[in-house]
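Thread: Newbie trying to understand structure tokens

Hi all, I'm a second-year student working on a class project, and my supervisor (Dr. K.) asked me to get a predicted structure for one chain before our next meeting. I've only ever worked with sequences, so writing a 3D structure as a token string is new to me. If someone could post the tokens and maybe explain what I'm looking at, I'd be very grateful. Here's the chain:
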Amino acid sequence: MRKSSWQSNKYIIVAAILGSILIFAAGFLVRYLDYSITVYSQIISALILYLTAVIVFWYAKESAESNKLHLEELEAKIMPYLRLQWSKAGGCVFEIVNDGNGIALDVSFSQMVFVDNVLKSKFQIKSRPLIAPNNASSIVSVEELKEDAQGIVKIDNFNIKGYLFDKLDLAYKIKVQYKDIKDNIYEAIFVADQKYNDKFRIKSQKRVKTN
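---
Reply by user tm_fold:
Sure, no problem. This is what the structure looks like when written as tokens:
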């Protein structure tokens, strides 16, 4: 948010007021208390140095704040922001959507692990090289989500979508890691939740490494 004219120039205004007071005080000392012109000149020189220091400080502060605002605007333009949603399309299970302004690169997913009657099932979503802004990438069950029960069973035509839908009440988590175009690394955690239209809520999403 841009600062008001008063906020931007308050240091100059305060310095000008103080300077005027000091000039008046110096003139009073010379005129009414019989101080020499030399003392008056010294006061004026000190005042000029003071005002110069205030102006330099104000300029440096304003420049730093302006640079910070510029960097924040630039970061907002390149930052991806992901959302995971349950797919209504028949052949897809999930869709990973980039609602941010920047490209999401090297999008990788954590493994989902379930245990049914001591039998462990693992599901792994394949990584994406990139997801463009305001675009979605569909996660197709037959092509990507392979059910692997302790390395013994691997069935392509298994109804993975129905299986995972039934597991939504377990509030399972899917962790996603990705980068922006400056190689900053982000991490998002999605939790299955039937109360949301997407069937997933965003537990957290933040930058974990800055380059």
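A couple of things are worth pointing out once you decode it. The chain has two domains: 5-78, 82-209. Residues 117 and 149 are 12 Å apart (CA to CA). Feel free to ask follow-ups in this thread.
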